[in-house]
Model the fold of this input.
Amino acid sequence: MADANITDFGQMKISANNLLQMYQMLKARFGFLNWWPGDTPLEIALGAILTQSTSWKNVEKAIANLKKGNLLSVEALSGVEPSYLAELIRPSLYYNQKAKKIKGFISYLANKYDSDLEKMKVVSTAVLRLELLDLWGIGQETADSIILYALDKPIFVIDAYTRRILSRHGIASVDDKPYAVLQHFFQDNIPQEVELYKDFHAQIVEVGKNYCRRQRPLCAACPLKK
DNA sequence: GGCCAGGACACCA
DNA sequence: TGGTGTCATGGC
Done:
């Protein structure tokens, strides 16, 4: 469907050539973002599951409950009842499903990597991605978030904000570009650096939260317009 | 009081 | 394979 407003937000045409310029503009506006919040790789990985279609504020409440219950370890989460886990992560929305997802991920970690996320780091990104995608409830964005932010391996995360921003700047409509196409658009045109990938995605989420929500009253102030 | 948030899956035609 | 429904809290 044609979007008559796209031109309003298309003053900066994002292309392969100026992706880095886009990043610099965002970084100039928001500064280097210390992302993703989390004290340990496990906490970051759990956050990736808990934040599925959920605001981070609600995720924080769920993680705080897990901390309070001393459940932020593979061993503890292995032994916890799914129903109790669901109760603790209740603020994060879809808590029954997410409890099942966490249990599945924890079981995978325990069985395949001896409960040690560090052991995952020596495995290739491609293999890890396939393994994670094979788990119930882990899709492309969640898998890539775990790989990038918890395992410090360079892979670019595409989320709803990325799609929306690219759409509103005239690069891709929201629905017609597969995840992999958008991911390669970034990965093929910026240096393959973990910290850059992390911060670029963080900047996109930040501009998305502040200027590029579904309802668009704030789009006119978007730093990418200038 | 309604909308929507850092998704993913099941089901159906 | 693509569209639609389901999950189901809390902040704004």
Summary: DSSP finds eleven helices and no strands in chain A. Chain A has two domains: 6-35+156-225, 41-150.
